[in-house]
Amino acid sequence: xxxxxxxxxxxxxxxxxxxxxxxxxxxxxxxxxxxxxxxxxxxxxxxxxxxxxxxxxxxxxxxxxxxxxxxxxxxxxxxxxxxxxxxxxxxxxxxxxxxxxxxxxxxxxxxxxxxxxxxxxxxxxxxxxxxxxxxxxxxxxxxxxxxxxxxxxxxxxxxxxxxxxxxxxxxxxxxxxxxxxxxxxxxxxxxxxxxxxxxxxxxxxxxxxxxxxxxxxxxxxxxxxxxxxxxxxxxxxxxxxxxxxxxxxxxxxxxxxxxxxxxxxxxx
Amino acid sequence: xxxxxxxxxxxxxxxxxxxxxxxxxxxxxxxxxxxxxxxxxxxxxxxxxxxxxxxxxxxxxxxxxxxxxxxxxxxxxxxxxxxxxxxxxxxxxxxxxxxxxxxxxxxxxxxxxxxxxxxxxxxxxxxxxxxxxxxxxxxxxxxxxxxxxxxxxxxxxxxxxxxxxxxxxxxxxxxxxxxxxxxxxxxxxxxxxxxxxxxxxxxxxxxxxxxxxxxxxxxxxxxxxxxxxxxxxxxxxxxxxxxxxxxxxxxxxxxxxxxxxxxxxxxxxxxxxxxxxxxxxxxxxxxxxxxxxxxxxxxxxxxxxxxxxxxxxxxxxxxxxxxxxxxxxxxxxxxxxxxxxxxxxxxxxxxxxxxxxxxxxxxxxxxxxxxxxxxxxxxxxxxxxxxxxxxxxxxxxxxxxxxxxxxxxxxxxxxxxxxxxxxxxxxxxxxxxxxxxxxxxxxxxxxxxxxxxxxxxxxxxxxxxxxxxxxxxxxxxxxxxxxx
Lengths: 268, 484
Hints:
The complex is a heterodimer. Chain A is an alpha+beta fold. Helices cover about 30% and strands about 15% of the residues of chain A. Chain A has helices at about 35-45, 50, 75-85, 95-110, 125-130, 155-160, 165-170, 240, 245-255; strands at about 15-20, 65, 140-145, 145, 185-190, 195-200, 205-210, 215-220, 225-230. A five-stranded antiparallel sheet of chain A has the order 8-7-6-5-9, with no helix packed on it. A two-stranded antiparallel sheet of chain A has the order 1-2. In chain A, helix 1 (about 35-45) packs across helix 4, helix 3 crosses helix 4 (about 95-110) and helix 5 crosses helix 9. Chain B has one domain: Quinoprotein alcohol dehydrogenase-like superfamily (Methanol Dehydrogenase, Chain A). In chain B, the strands form nine sheets. In chain B, strands 26, 27, 28, 29, 30 and 31 form a six-stranded antiparallel sheet that branches. In chain B, strands 1-32-33-34-35 form a five-stranded mixed sheet, with no helix packed on it. Chain B has a four-stranded antiparallel sheet with strand order 2-3-4-5, with no helix packed on it.
């Protein structure tokens, strides 16, 4: 007898996490704004072509969003930059120790919250994109209590995530993200009611759903006759086309500024 | 099957917000303030757990709070959701299953210290970060509504207390009294976090009370690191204050050091003092007054009276008139009290000579930890008794003559805690006499509170790491669960 219908589940739990570091170096360049700025110059000149200006990858791998089983450390970056990866497409460099540490400091910062790094776009223009109807971000996301409750709160997104991760969440929302906590679900209850919304959490015994009106439904799985789970991110998948490159850059600058603590590397 | 996301027209209305009137009602199926009710009783009218069935209690679930080390929080309960806090974080749990609904972690907070709990009002859950941001979160999603800083770490202030929601305000306190700070209590607007009033617990130069200090008045301490109680009829907040600074060196701050180690009664709308009462004038043993001011109406020597009960760290149990602040009685709380022989008719301790911290060390009871502390007692209106975890412990108090430097964490000496025994005591507030006591075996750690049920059960922590149920009438053991 079919009592509970389970559609899906292919998202690998914790497939990727950003900013995972095995060790934090005590080299003075780390966290030093002057070194980071110098590292940024070096990076744009010699690395951005392969790793992307924001570290999100291209010919070379994404340096920001790291698989859990292969985290980076300051020392490992230093060695990779110095020696390259023989046999792979990653060339060695002949930079001085100081310059190499400047690069490491820059990558370290890149992996840190977006708010702590300079961004290119126009914040005010980005604000208009966020609240505007073309993007419709605020139908699902809130900032300081204004906006929708379906998507994660973005009030502190710049203080939380690296820019490359935010960008990826927008342009490739269904790519390798871990949805538990953000799944779109429809639960048909045994009492005939239907609850639709986001499952904030679930296991095989219970589920915690927040509906569009913002009401919580704390349900036991036994109460549910049929549970349907959306197989992709509820985020629209077409933002890369729907927004111009300029709009996206501005939007990112606006999101990078959403932080509960003062922005900028010097604030640390 | 295709999921049609936007086709949802939901019939169910928004679930109930928390109104000020709901908090006034006190606990039932909800627990809406740190102490459960404005009067600070930590008492539930629920009757499901009785002395007869307590023996068959079994745990339903366990939630492991991430990074928890010595949690000091009392969860709130509302509409089937528990709100638990830890350092710079809040966890909303499904009360029935123990599953996480949302969590909020302020990972960029610039300080990590314990957190004692949250407040709830309207659709918001409020808590305080260690670096003094009042953060308001949407109670169903954890989304940030605002996060507003009300004091600076640079001024020595950090935060650990549970805020208190009263009317349209959130009352917040301050920590930092062991390294020099000017303590204060502030009311912030519940909608915006904007400051409505701020009352310092240490007078400014020239203000009444400033004559009770020397040069260190700007850093006098008097932190307000515990939540307080509130009388809606009298429109009055009752809040206790912490030790004077430097903690153990009284020589550099001649006088009573108002308003440290005191109970303050303040008008909730203006923050103005109605009265104050100082338990330990010129404290040199770090005996903060941070233990609950419990508001009860009792027959006092033949006539009904509005009282405030307070078991103090200094070893005495106090009863005051909460309308006027008049001192009514001060009785010994623990057996070991060596610094004062009693409390005089005006409420001042009758000092025993030679009990100040010294360079070589001075043996004094109670210890620095105090005869009781912040964890919370319960008052049971049925038995008329108050149930307090007390500590029989003494310790060495040392003086240092090093120059006091504010914010360098210089307490002017040090103190030890030696052995000791935790004893749960049931005390009749009208006489100060013990109805019964429940001695425990353990390490004298004593960082747990008590709650009571209308059906006559006291739930408490045991000094050996057990959760225990005790019969409120007789003090006999009903049940225990080893939590390790």
